[in-house]
Amino acid sequence: MYFTYNKLFLIMGKLFVISAPSGTGKTSLIQAILEDMVASNTYLGISCTTRKARPKEEDGVSYFFISQMSFMEKVKNNDFLEYAEVYGNFYGTPKDWVLSVLSKKENVLLELDIQGALQVKKAFPEAKTVFIIPPSYEDLTRRLETRDQDSKTEMAKRLKEARNEVNIGKDFDQVIVNDDFDAALEDLKQFMFTSEGVTNERSEIIKNSLDLLLD
Ligand code: 5GP
Q: What's the predicted TM-score (pTM) here?
């Protein structure tokens, strides 16, 4: 059951939700934007997850790593703004934190899977949703191979899932193509922090890439 926080937006900061198929470079783009001056008033949400921490991931920095039992307790207590099961693990966004940052007129950026992004948009219609796409599926395959984080079966699963995600993400408020890191970063900045948005030239490139992926 959802209720909308629409009216609260008159007095609140902005809520951005960024989603992308696995391997699209979403995390690097988010890190870069958060380091930019334009984002000095924007904070990245830290989610709770039941996934095990990867090497170099710190509790309370990348995620709050919690047990499945604690996670379900939080679900029961309605502590999450949204939550979803992604590739066998649960992820949830702490609601109180998001609302307290927004109420200070500061912006929140959430990095969520596609189901989470849809849930947030439903609860907060004013949230700005961004979907990042690769320039092609060949490029995405190469990136997944390069990062060498997943088994062959896992990679095939992620590629198949990417196609489903693109079908949903194409309707987000803004699609960004990560064909070139700097250009994609600029597009993201334009969308998030200017009223003009992405340039016509880049919009055309984004449209062509999206058509290619949907073909
Ligand atoms: P990873 O385990 O690789 O860090 O993340 C897997 C996926 O879960 C990514 O698509 C990431 O954006 C998403 N994710 C991270 N935190 C949350 C969350 O709180 N809610 C939802 N719905 N997805 C999340």
A: 0.93
Query: Residue 48 pairs with which residues in a beta bridge?
Result: 64, 92
What residue ranges do the domains of the chain occupy? 12-45+106-214
Ligand 1 atom with the smallest distance to the CA of 114 is 22
| Per-residue pLDDT tens digits for 23-48 | 999 999 999 999 999 999 999 999 99
Q: Are 130 and 191 in contact (CB under 8 A)?
A: yes
Separation of CA 91 and ligand 1 centre (Å):
6
- Is the torsion defined by CA of 182, 183, 188, 190 positive or negative? positive
Which atom of ligand 1 sits closest to the CA of residue 51?
2
**Topology, domain 12-45+106-214:** Rossmann fold (3.40.50)
Give 215's DSSP letter: -
